[in-house]
Design goal:
mainly alpha; 4 strands; 3 domains; about 550 residues
Length: about 550
């Protein structure tokens, strides 16, 4: 915990001056320290993305961006002092019970971040994506080695740039830092907008803390969508002519789309505001460079500029085969894993809505809040626009990739609006609210145990939990839940790769040495598609391509 706390403190002072620099460059005026920190994360992510085209994201890249942060901190030292004063003042203004809630969630987040990672995606491509970035930067055609590496999320780029890999292999814990920032933002902002007779919807963020808590011990791109989306919606709802709220919300949305493209349909929220010339100019200045980084990154790692969409496959020698992308797109829809190809949409929807376990619970909760929200939101135009945007985002996911964690940000936002509407309708007293936020804060500690997980999921890998140990007070566990896994070298054509000695699942690679891919995956694609990964040259940095071989 102590090491993670020190790391978060380092991130705070690294990002704050960069946020002030970004605010000046984009003419965004904000005295809110959390917003400034988020702007700094946007700048740092774009910076590391640009760096990764040319250099590994190791010590040199971090020193370079730390130097820029230091220079900015010296130049804007008065503004930094003012930001820190504002931050401390906003915390002091909170009633004692909300300070306790922040303390509980901060302690829980630190403790959660010290444990072995929970989500299995960490063992298939999170670790490996970050490791490749740390050692090589972007690698041409890396998706030919392991198709999941094509995703190369901006969130993993940010984590690779800041994980101090040259000092330790135990830190991939930026999620907890961002969770605490956004939780503090929601609590302080809601305190400013709530009245004695009406609680603002952001006030109920602690009640939903269990959602993001499931993603704190891994560098999952789902986490920023969960905790930053409420901030975006709040900024949009509260924006007025002449302030920076609309542009800040737009920039944060573009950043989230850069992190995970599944949130892109939410962008219809901003169409009305783009009729103003200043907003159009701002959108072009911010969106085009980020879009260019996204397209260029996709082009390098997969050969598809709009990956995961299979449009515009390039003729580069490292582009992944179209049949491989089509196969993975089918399997990743959320239907393809269990339903045969050609299943009608009504059958797919019936299967989707009747799922059991954790997925079934979250699906039904999402439908419930989407149904309830209009009854409390249609009196206000901006709230109506928020609801329509959330609904459009949900429908787009429903017909493309309806995995419940892809629309969890919609579920969380819907829960916040619904809880506020019910609370205010019943005119409950403050004791009820205190009980709710304390209960929500305490609920996060359920995530430390496997209680009930056997009933919620049949996936044995998702039933495995790290154990609380005394040593975690000082030093966190490593970046994988399989630290003792052994790997064997396999020669295939001109490629020698490392494969897990024990096949814990077909796409699993854990923290294997580079290049690493599960031999079971290699054999499957060789038999199914007649392809194998090969080196383009003798240098790993030059990347991979898929060679055609007989299917056997």
């Amino acid at each position: 915990m102590i090491l993670i706390a020190a790391y978060w403190l380092f991130l705070f002072f690294l990002v704050l001056p960069l946020g002030i620099l970004a605010g000046h460059a984009l003419k965004i005026s904000s005295q809110n320290t959390i917003i400034t920190l988020l702007l700094g994360l946007v700048l740092l992510t774009c910076g590391f993305t640009l760096t990764a085209f040319f250099f590994p994201l190791g010590a040199e890249s971090l020193v370079s961006w730390t130097t820029l942060s230091l220079i900015s901190g010296i130049y804007y030292r008065r503004e930094i002092r003012q930001q820190l004063t504002n931050f401390v003042k906003s915390l002091k203004l909170l009633p004692s019970y909300l300070k306790v809630v922040i303390g509980i969630l901060t302690f829980g987040a630190l403790l959660k971040s010290t444990q072995y990672p929970f989500i299995i995606d960490n063992e298939s491509y999170y670790i490996q994506t970050i490791k490749w970035l740390n050692q090589y930067g972007f690698v041409k055609g890396i998706a030919n080695l392991h198709i999941f590496l094509a995703q190369n999320s901006a969130w993993h780029i940010l984590q690779a740039g800041t994980n101090l890999s040259f000092l330790t292999n135990k830190i991939n814990d930026i999620n907890g830092f961002v969770f605490i920032l956004c939780t503090i933002y929601c609590i302080t902002e809601s305190h400013a907008y709530s009245t004695k007779v009406k609680m603002y919807w952001l006030s109920f963020m602690p009640l939903t803390a269990i959602f993001p808590f499931l993603f704190l011990d891994v560098p999952s791109p789902d986490l920023p969508l969960l905790v930053i989306t409420p901030a975006i919606l709040h900024l949009f709802i509260q924006h007025k002519d002449g302030d920076s709220n609309f542009r800040t919300a737009l920039l944060l949305f573009v950043f989230l789309a850069f992190v995970k493209i599944t949130i892109a349909p939410l962008g219809i929220l901003f169409l009305g505001g783009l009729i103003k010339k200043d907003n159009i100019r701002f959108a072009l200045v911010t969106t085009l460079p980020i879009a260019l980084l996204w397209i260029s990154k996709n082009l390098v790692v997969s050969g598809y500029p709009l990956y995961p969409f299979n449009f515009f496959r390039t003729d580069t020698g490292w582009a992944i085969p179209a049949e491989l992308l089509d196969l993975m797109s089918f399997h990743n829809t959320g239907y393809g894993k269990l339903l045969p190809h050609g299943t009608t949409m009504p059958t797919k929807l019936f299967y989707w809505i009747t799922q059991d376990g954790l997925a079934g619970i979250m699906i039904k909760l999402t439908l419930a809040v989407l149904f309830a929200m209009p009854f409390s939101m249609f009196k206000n135009k901006k709230y109506r626009m928020v609801y329509i945007a959330l609904l459009v985002n949900f429908m787009a996911l429903l017909f493309t990739s309806p995995q419940f964690r892809f629309f969890l940000h919609i579920t969380l936002a819907g829960c916040l609006f619904t809880a506020a509407a019910l609370y205010n309708y019943m005119k409950a007293n403050n004791l009820v609210y205190k009980t709710m936020v304390f209960a929500g804060s305490a609920l996060v500690f359920v995530s430390f145990f496997s209680l009930g997980l056997t009933k919620l999921t049949k996936n044995k890998r998702l039933q495995e939990h790290g154990k609380l140990q005394l040593q975690q007070i000082l030093i966190p566990e490593g970046v994988t839940k399989y630290p003792d896994m052994k790997f064997v070298k396999v020669q295939l054509g001109n490629l020698e790769y490392n494969s897990p000695e024990y096949n814990f699942f077909a796409y699993g690679t854990a923290n294997g040495p580079l290049p690493c891919v599960n031999n079971v995956q290699i054999i499957f694609f060789q038999k199914r598609l007649g392809i194998i990964p090969q080196l383009r040259t003798n240098d790993l940095k030059d990347g991979f391509y898929s060679a055609t071989v007989p299917r056997n």
